[in-house]
Design a protein that fits this description.
Blueprint: E1 3-6, E2 8-11, E3 14-21, H1 39-62, H2 70-84, H3 86-99, H4 103-119, H5 124-128, H6 130-145, E4 168-172, H7 177-183, E5 188-193, H8 201-208, E6 213-215, H9 220-223, E7 229-233, E8 238-241, H10 245-265, E9 282-287, H11 293-298, E10 304-308, H12 323-336, E11 342-345, H13 360-363, H14 377-383, H15 385-398, E12 404-408, H16 414-434, E13 442-447, H17 450-454, H18 456-460, E14 465-468, H19 470-478, H20 496-511, E15 515-518, H21 526-535, E16 539-542, H22 544-555, H23 563-571, H24 575-597
Parallel strand pairs: 3-4, 4-5, 5-6, 9-10, 9-16, 10-11, 11-12, 12-13, 13-14, 14-15
Antiparallel strand pairs: 1-8, 2-6, 3-7, 7-8
Helix pairs in contact: 1-2, 1-3, 1-6, 2-6, 3-4, 4-6, 12-15, 15-16, 21-22, 21-24, 23-24
């Protein structure tokens, strides 16, 4: 049956593939692909888990007291029957053999299939037996999880997704950042989630990978079935389930057109980014892991404007990386950049990026009502001084191998800034005492809290540069959770308050002679490129895949063309009307560029 779903378009393009559902089980389930050579071992794990649960339930039944209710013994009989039924075991094996799913993922995928079948039964008694299967599956998952320190395992290299190598589309209620960091190296050609907003982490990673994605569908993971054929229209926020042949061919044609456009833009790789009025612009890239550095060089970026170091802390079962491990990661990124600068942001843990296992200090805050306003980013680092100095030492040590800048996230108070600078000074002294080499490192502040933007002159006296994190700046300015699809329509980068704060930060930083860049999603959004240029921005940092489209706009832009509209938007009698005129002018320029391309 063919039908359509609508959500929020967060990453442009078209993806076509078979649906892969990530279970929303009450137990955390590992989701990873296995090499073909390990299929037998994974099936053995499944069989061992079944044998262990059978033995466990058999022992329970044998130890039942004589006055135990007969229903309890009957329930154990049902569960043993389900465990010994080859239907569940054989079907789960097929997911492992055909898709190379790990055993936990295969089992949860098969449960989703069975659950739907039971939900469609007319007999009430049979329909309620779904609960028995769920209990059996959860026992099996627990048995497989015993002794495993990690919920998500990562294979070192991507592996084939299925025996037929069909394109796959990931469908889930939500995708945690830790999952996304694994999935970004695998085979999915698109993402669909029930929840999320335009700047939720899933959306950001999908855009950074240039993979079509639609979030906030609300019911997607419940109405889409395993192996349904999906078309994701990332421009319209549309998902077509089991499309007709005519519709499928139309979207395949659009895919081919997009591939041609990518090839055309790739020719700009070595072209300097200079506006029509002769203003040079620094094009930097954002990365999550050292291995991403090769894409930075391939895209022709002038360095890394944001290395999100927190991803070194994820997928580790809560264990923190050692100083030496971090040093090796930072050094690898620096060496891969061949002398280009690397800006490393200190760990930004919290909010939508929690660790799998909290520290003792953080356990007190584990159930905070609003983690986005809680112990996160520099607040968390300052609450863990030993961990923080360890990271600073690792960054400083890597500076001996190339130019490194250190970026501090979510600065809001001068006191935080002074504590951070003191921690850096102490780390330098420790390295000096130990005879370890390090080079001078510039220290900058991320401006992503309105308070920081409003007291910027005080912060500029302490820091060497600033970087605008527009995602959180918009969230905090408008009091909107950027991951909540129910308020996504209120998340507005064109809001007069947001634009005025950005303009103020850029202007004051330039007046103080301090470097300023934008590393949030606005930097990679071509609708804002000419507006930011008119505000005086000359340094953009984005994912490598976004550099060519933004550079194309810069090459066709005049840095002062929108100045009159900006003045009207911020200083006129009606700032709302002024910002709408600015938005319309930017949209008109984008449309004109699109027509030129066509």
């Amino acid at each position: 049956m063919s039908f359509q779903l609508f959500g929020l378009p967060v990453s442009r393009g078209v993806a076509i593939g078979r649906a892969v559902l990530v279970s929303s089980s009450r137990i955390d389930v590992a989701h990873y692909f296995i090499p073909a050579a390990e299929v037998g071992a994974e099936i053995a794990r499944l069989r061992a888990a079944r044998d262990a649960v059978v033995a466990e339930l058999t022992t329970l039944q044998e130890d039942l007291p004589g006055d135990a209710p007969a229903e309890l013994s009957a329930l154990l009989d049902v569960h043993l029957m389900l465990l010994n039924d080859e239907t569940l075991h054989t079907a789960t094996k097929l997911w492992i053999e055909g898709r190379y799913y790990n055993a936990e993922w295969a089992l949860s995928a098969q449960f989703e299939v069975l659950a739907r079948q039971f939900d469609e039964m007319e007999d009430d008694y049979l329909r309620e037996r779904k609960a028995d299967i769920e209990q059996v599956v959860e026992r099996l998952l627990r048995a497989m999880a015993r002794g495993s320190p990690r919920l998500i395992e990562a294979t070192p290299e991507p592996v084939a997704a299925s025996a037929t190598n069909e394109p796959l589309v990931l469908v889930a209620n939500d995708i945690a950042p830790a999952d996304m960091m694994h999935f970004k190296r695998s085979v999915f050609t698109g993402f669909v989630t029930d929840v999320g907003g335009t700047t939720s982490h899933t959306a950001i990673v999908a855009r950074s990978l240039d993979i079509p994605a639609v979030v906030g569908t609300r019911e997607g993971s419940r109405v889409i079935r395993q192996d349904d054929l999906l078309v994701i229209d990332g421009d319209a926020g549309l998902i077509i389930v089991n499309p007709s042949d005519i519709v499928l061919e139309e979207y395949r044609f659009r895919q081919r057109q997009r591939d041609v456009e990518r090839q055309r833009l790739s020719r700009l790789r070595n072209t300097p980014a200079v506006t029509l009025d002769g203003e040079p612009v620094e094009m930097l890239a954002n990365i999550e892991l050292p291995g991403d550095a090769s894409a930075v060089v391939a895209a022709g970026a002038m360095g890394v404007g944001l290395f999100r170091s927190e991803f070194l802390f994820m997928n580790r079962g809560g264990a923190l990386p050692s100083e030496d491990e971090q040093f090796e990661a930072y050094r690898a990124a620096v060496l891969a950049l061949n002398g280009l600068p690397v800006t490393i942001r200190t760990v930004d843990i919290g909010a939508d990026k929690p660790l799998e296992r909290m520290s003792v200090n953080e356990l007190r805050h584990e159930h905070a009502l609003n983690p986005a306003l809680g112990l996160r980013a520099i607040r968390w680092s300052l609450s863990e001084p030993a961990m923080f100095r360890q990271q600073i030492r690792a960054i400083l040590r890597a500076s001996a191998f190339g130019e490194i800048r250190l970026l501090v996230p979510m600065v809001a108070h001068v006191g935080e800034a002074l504590q951070t600078l003191e921690a850096i000074a102490r780390a330098k002294q420790q390295l000096t005492d130990a005879g370890r080499a390090f080079a001078p490192v510039q220290v900058g502040a991320m401006i992503e809290v309105p308070a920081a933007a409003l007291v910027l002159p005080s912060l500029l006296k302490l820091f060497d540069f600033v970087s605008l994190g527009t995602n959180d700046l918009i969230q905090y300015t408008l009091a909107i959770d950027r991951g909540d699809e129910s308020v996504a329509h209120l998340y507005d980068p064109w809001h007069p308050a947001v634009l005025q704060l950005i303009d103020t930060v850029i202007r004051q930083a330039r007046q103080a002679g301090k470097a300023v860049s934008v590393c949030g999603e606005m930097a990679g959004d071509t609708a804002f490129t000419e507006v930011l240029l008119a505000m005086g921005l000359r340094s953009f940092s984005m994912h490598p895949s976004q550099i060519a489209p933004v550079k194309q706009v810069i090459l066709r832009a005049h840095s002062k063309r929108l100045l009159p509209l900006i003045a009207g938007a911020f200083h006129g009698d009606d700032v709302w009307a002024g910002c709408e005129r600015l938005r319309a002018a930017a949209a008109g320029r984008a449309q004109l560029d699109a027509q030129r391309v066509a």
